[in-house]
């Protein structure tokens, strides 16, 4: 039997979600400043960043179909305290647009859902970072290219770690690399099956530009890396312990349709 025990915390009824978008030429100082703000922000804030191209009603049309950096945060707690972060975020550059939303926790979980989402094809790549050097920031803002432009490009997203994640010793759970400061997800989405090979190849190439700066990967962001990806997700000592559990409970590797940790006999 497997069971989970949850501890509830009083947080109020609504969260604050802030997204600010800047001209491409401001990306480097904006992302540097965003990283510095994250280091001192209250733990109620989870910092986020994005790099890609978008069309949306809240964006001026002159920013459509152009490389566009975005930074922001999700605040869970007193919303007025969260709004106190906005002046510092706006001061990072010259915001071309912003979206500040108050929403329930359920709405927050659903904000990226799409009723037509099942029609889309998806491919992800991921990385962990203990720090974002200037070179890593450049690779993020240009999405692994020379200028951030190109056909069939995926979107890049960053989410800050730390806080309660980092307070649990790394050896206490299967979830690994709790000293990570940022997680990257490279997300490609499309609808035409004829683009499968090109979309996935582009996502791999773009993500590979950040390989030199990465320290690992979240197992949920793995796709087709196989055993090499599993080794990136778990440090050697953790992987040894998980392999011992596999030997004990699934020596025949019945449960293998996953990011598979093979038994030592196989």
Architecture blueprint of SSEs:
Layout: E1 14-21, H1 27-40, E2 45-52, E3 68-76, H2 79-83, H3 86-90, E4 97-104, H4 105-110, E5 121-129, H5 134-141, E6 155-160, H6 163-167, E7 182-190, H7 196-208, H8 227-233, H9 236-249
Antiparallel strand pairs: 1-3, 1-4, 2-3, 2-6, 5-7, 6-7
Helix pairs in contact: 1-5
Summarize this entry quickly.
This protein is of the alpha+beta class.
Overview of this structure, please?
Helix content is 29%, strand content 21%. It has 266 residues and is an alpha+beta fold. It has 2 domains: 14-226, Vanillyl-alcohol Oxidase, Chain A, domain 3 (3-Layer(aba) Sandwich), CATH 3.40.462.20; 235-266, no CATH class. The protein has a 7-stranded antiparallel sheet. Helix 1 (27-40) crosses helix 5. The mean pLDDT is 92.
Give short descriptive properties of this protein.
single chain, 266 residues, alpha+beta, Vanillyl-alcohol Oxidase, Chain A, domain 3, 2 domains, 7-stranded antiparallel beta sheet, 7 strands
CATH T-level fold name of the largest domain: Vanillyl-alcohol Oxidase, Chain A, domain 3
Oligomer: single chain
Tell me, rounded to a whole number, the average pLDDT: 92
Q: What would CATH call the architecture of the largest domain?
A: 3-Layer(aba) Sandwich
Order of helices and strands: EHEEHHEHEHEHEHHH
Count up the domains. 2
CA-CA gap between termini: 26 Å
Number of helices: 9
Q: What's the gyration radius in Å?
A: 20 Å
What is the CATH class of the largest domain?
Answer: Alpha Beta
- The best one-word shape is globular
Proportion of residues in helical segments: 25-40%
Q: Uncertain spans, ≥5 residues at pLDDT below 50?
A: none
Question: Structural class per helix/strand content?
Answer: alpha+beta
- Biggest sheet architecture: 7 strands, antiparallel
Q: How many DSSP E strands?
A: 7
Q: Which strand order do you get reading across the main beta sheet?
A: 4-1-3-2-6-7-5
Q: Could you tell me the strand content as a percent range?
A: 15-25%
